[in-house]
Write a structure and sequence with these properties.
The structure is a homodimer. By secondary structure, chain A is α/β, with parallel strands linked by helices. Chain A has one domain: Alpha/beta knot (3-Layer(aba) Sandwich), CATH 3.40.1280. Chain A is about 45% helix and about 20% strand. The first copy, chain A, is globular and about 50 Å long. The relative contact order of chain A is 0.20.
Chain lengths: ~200, ~200
């Protein structure tokens, strides 16, 4: 029995995923549903990088067109991968090493295309339900990921991904629903729950 | 079919839970496994309160014996429930309203006992596997919660709950495992994943 479980666990770990995630800072909405470029939250980068490492995500794209924000993200990267932080906390290094700073979703897709030899399927996430024909469940998304397709899962900061960007995605993941109608999780919490559902054991 | 699903969803929402969570700032370990009282991270309070509201948690206890830290937590509470924040963002208000600041785990248990008429089962969480006889799976914990028992789920900040505190819990939840051996999630991410597994749909 124990041996059987052990083999199943090993089999699970061996199953190769080609899962990528992107944290989009533009175009996203602000509180008044105006399109903005949001500022990077340092903690988002840390929390999501640690989640990415936990769930065997290949790369974590921090997407922002703002040059000062790109500099900030690269400074975080250097601090934890080659600077003081790399010595101080090697677990953080292992996580932050997955970060790539790019100016746009297109650039993230190109980088994945270069690495994988084909463009990824893009699955957008949203807190509210989108039109039914592109909406997929977590189970469906999990099948795509386990089917050895390169998949890029994108998350919006601030008040969420701009509608026009969602429209360019191949699919939109069903929103996370809790036990009632409250629907206001942080993006960090949403990434945690979605990665556990799509790539957890 | 749709109607059937709708009824199941309604049934799910009606099922009453008596789930409480506690974020412990003392006694926890620092990086060198010395017992400390950690500082409150404002963002933990926000993220975890929003998760608590999402998953229908009854109260979220912020546990710290340090008076200045209790003041900080109460200031956050006031700002978002009766101060400027209450007007600015009512969704945040609905979440932060679940926060209770208490000096110890015992005080949290007493508060639950007063409210529920019986002491809660305490389930500790830990990043590493504990001795087998008190370890329970997420499925087992979910059953206890759905069995109408008051349950207090406790999470450690910093490098995790002190061993002596874990020993006082009734059960210890199995650690979250990702796809490999990396095991260094933020407490915010751990709360997100565990609440989704124990109380999500």
């Amino acid at each position: 029995m124990r041996r059987g479980l052990g083999s199943a666990a090993t089999e699970f770990q061996r199953r190769v995923m080609r899962l990528y995630i992107g944290l989009v800072h533009y175009p996203v909405y602000n509180k008044n549903f105006q399109t903005i470029a949001s500022a990077i939250t340092t903690l988002d980068v840390h929390d999501i990088a640690r989640l990415a490492r936990t769930f065997d995500v290949k790369l974590f794209f921090v997407i922002t067109p703002l040059e000062d924000q790109q500099c900030l993200a690269r400074r975080i990267y250097r601090h934890w991968t080659v600077g003081f932080g790399a010595e101080y906390n090697r677990h953080r290094k292992e996580a932050i090493e997955l970060v790539r700073v790019v100016p746009s979703l297109d650039k993230a897709m190109l980088a994945i295309g270069d690495k994988e030899g084909k463009a990824p399927l893009v699955i957008a996430t949203a807190a509210s339900r989108q039109e039914r024909n592109r909406s997929i469940s977590c189970e469906e998304a999990r099948c795509m990921i386990e089917d050895d397709l390169p998949v890029l899962l994108i998350f919006g900061t601030a008040w969420g991904l701009e509608r026009a960007l969602i429209d360019t995605a191949d699919y939109v993941l069903e929103p996370i629903r809790g036990r009632g109608s409250y629907n206001h999780l942080s993006v960090r919490a949403a990434v945690a729950i979605i990665l556990d559902r799509l790539a957890g054991r």
